[in-house]
Amino acid sequence: MREEYAVMPGAESFYLEGNDIGIVLSHGFIGTPQSVRDVAEALNERGFSVIAPRLKGHGTHQEDMERCTHEDWYESYSRAYRFLKKRNKRIFLMGQSMGGTLTLQFAAEHHDIEGIITINAALTLPSLEYLRHDPAPRFIEEGAPDIKKENVHEITYEEAPVQSIRELQKLMGLVPALLHRIHVPALCIKSAKDNVVPPENTSFIYQSISSRKKQIVTLPNSYHVATMDHDQHTIVSAVADFVLDQIRSKAVG
């Protein structure tokens, strides 16, 4: 029988009710909704409804995560989308790191959304390429989160399961071929310096999607976990402006 693990305090999924514009906001690999809470609350203060799902296996225990597949993470993301759909929200998709990767996959396969926002979306992780092949350890040390701002605590695991990293690599491997199927308006956000995911990932995404309306924003003073870093307010302003612009454009059209 599989052991059950409790969710870490503060790592739970959450929903903030607002207007009829809904945003799915996903955390990244090893992270939890806690890493996007400040941005979610700021967007909610601007009127938007925001749901931040806890992707399966995250925020509990690394052995719990080890049993999960990238399909499980996609299903967690899908449930958040369905939650907003049932409430008749106009839906935007948003995600950081692997959350951005899931955003791209979902947008390529669903066309009833208003737009997408990615933040340092992951398509390659050069430092972990060596783990594709055996022999490899069961777990590797996770290290400190890639955040430039000092004294920021992110809820995460101290160790990352290699099996989970391989699932992430599978996900990153399948998404590039789907990018041309994305036609909705897109806001692609990247950090000028990212010690985890090369900023060129976002440039590739921007160039590869088929969206006629798309823009790219570079954050000058943040690292990978940008939603917890110095440029947090820039993210909130850029996202709010982007979302409202799409809504106004549809109203005029």
From TrEMBL:
PANTHER family for this protein: PHOSPHOLIPASE-RELATED
Protein name from the UniProt record = Lipase
Residue ranges of every copy of the Serine aminopeptidase S33 domain listed in the record? 23-230
Q: Which residues bind substrate?
A: F29, M98
InterPro entries to which the protein is assigned, alphabetical: AB_hydrolase_fold (IPR029058), Esterase_lipase (IPR012354), Hydrolase_4 (IPR022742), MAG_DAG_Lipase (IPR051044)
Species per Swiss-Prot/TrEMBL record: Domibacillus aminovorans
Q: Which GO terms describe its molecular function?
A: carboxylic ester hydrolase activity
Q: Where is the active site?
A: S97 (nucleophile), D194 (charge relay system), H224 (charge relay system)
